[in-house]
Amino acid sequence: MASIKRDDRLTVSQCLVCGAVAGVFSRTVTSPLDVVKVLGQVGTFHTRNGFWNTFRQVYRSEGIAAYWKGNLIACMRLFPYSVVQLASYKRILHLYMDDRGYITQWGAIVAGSLAGIVATLITYPADVIETRLIIQNKKSPSYKGIMDALRTICKNEGFLTLYRGASLTLIGAIPFSCGAFLVYMNLDKLWGEPSFKFGPFQNFISGCLAAGFAQTLSFPFDTIKRKMQAQSPILPHCGGVNVHFSGMVDCFRQVIKIKGIHCLWDGLTANLLKIVPYYGLMFSTFEFCKRVCLYKNGFIVSPLSYQLAPGVDQSLRPQELRELRKYFHNRNFKSEQSSLKSRW
Fold first, then answer.
1. Where is 4: in which H helix or E strand?
2. Which spans of this chain does UniProt mark as Solcar repeats (predicted)?
3. Letter string b/e over residues 23-42, b meaning 16 or more CB atoms within 10 A of that residue's CB
């Protein structure tokens, strides 16, 4: 059993800001790997000679700025995605909780996956635009920016193009959830101790292993989704997709027939290499932002450490602590006034 609790010493807005800052920073730093991953999945000309050659080819043909194609829309998508995911997760979580407020690991993973699906579907158009910006040539772009991409897609291909491949998000959630569950169920065997005794490093490695295994299982669905997002009759070379297809099932069929089943995992190397730095940077950035907020709220003595402020009840919420301090401040002020009056 696992208890799901958030740090009540932070406000909801502080939690969202910490998550957004951590997400933007980690996404920006690992953007080159994400660009290579998407290009590999779509199958553009950059990726014909393997992972390392893709890096060189992107740099030679488009310059170093090309490693951050689509990063702005990806970062802009993080905040609404986090808000929707958090709200959905809280609602779905109650369906799997028992009377004491506890939830199994399987329930937590399913709730997280369902919340992720809801958030992904709502912010899906941004994902399509990100893919289109990544696959275009930066030196001779088809789209001038985010808003131009949105207008052009809706005008020339129709609004529903912004949801092309969205059904694969639902299908891919099944192997993803199963993969994450299998890893978490066997973590105690890996570490040789119960999961509730895991330290921060063990939890971080466990999260990376679960993410890596789960993403590997669901990667073919993500690959087909990227191909469907990229393919367009109005783009040069139909968006650079290495196969031509008429729908989701036909895309699977054509990839396996022409390129081989292993091509469903093109871009996986970049994706797996991204996991450790991405989650590592996200975790460390989130923890730093959290310390800043806890210091501002008065729970710790410095944003550089987790040393607790002396005499502060850590079970209080930020508003409760502020009200308590205000009460004692007013009380001390009144006692000082009465003391002055008694002297005179």
1. none
2. 10-95, 103-190, 198-292
3. bbbbbebbbbbbbbbbbbbb
